[in-house]
Design a protein that fits this description.
The termini are far apart. The longest helix is centred in the C-terminal third of the chain and has 21 residues. This protein is mainly α.
C-alpha cells in the first residue's frame, strides 16, 4: 500500500467522522489528492513538491472546523510511514543541546514518578 493511500485513508476516516453531515472536508481531500493533474510537464522534484504541498493542505484543512492534527495524530502518521525514528533524530540534532537535555530530564522524572506509583 502506498504512503499516499495510507495517509489518505487515515485522514479521510477522521474527516468523515467529523464532517459526516456536510462532506466538505472529504471533497477537499479527494480534490487535493486527485491523480488526474497534469504531470507530464513536471520534473520529479516538482511532482514531489506538489504532492508534499497537497498533504500539507489536507493536514491544514483538518483545523478549519475545529478538528486538528494534534501531536498524537502526527506521531501516528510518522509511524505509519516509518519515519518516527528519523524525525526524532532530526529534531534532536537540529535543536539546542539544552532543549534536548531538558526534555530527557523531564522524561526521566515522569518515568521515575510512574515507577514510584507502582511501589
Amino acid at each position: 500500500m502506498s504512503i499516499k493511500f495510507r495517509i489518505f485513508g487515515y485522514i479521510k476516516l477522521k474527516m468523515m467522522n467529523k464532517f459526516r453531515q456536510t462532506g466538505a472536508s472529504e471533497f477537499v481531500a479527494l480534490h487535493i489528492l486527485d491523480d488526474s493533474m497534469n504531470t507530464s510537464q513536471m520534473s520529479e522534484n516538482e511532482y514531489t513538491n506538489n504532492r508534499v504541498e497537497s498533504v500539507i493542505g489536507i493536514l491544514q484543512s483538518l483545523t478549519h472546523k475545529g478538528d486538528c492534527v494534534d501531536g498524537e495524530t502526527m506521531q501516528y502518521i510518522l509511524e505509519s510511514v516509518g519515519m518516527d525514528d528519523q524525525m526524532l533524530r532530526q529534531l534532536i540534532m537540529s535543536n539546542p543541546q539544552s532543549d534536548t537535555i531538558d526534555l530527557l530530564q523531564e522524561k526521566m522524572e515522569l518515568d521515575n514518578e510512574l515507577i514510584r506509583s507502582y511501589e
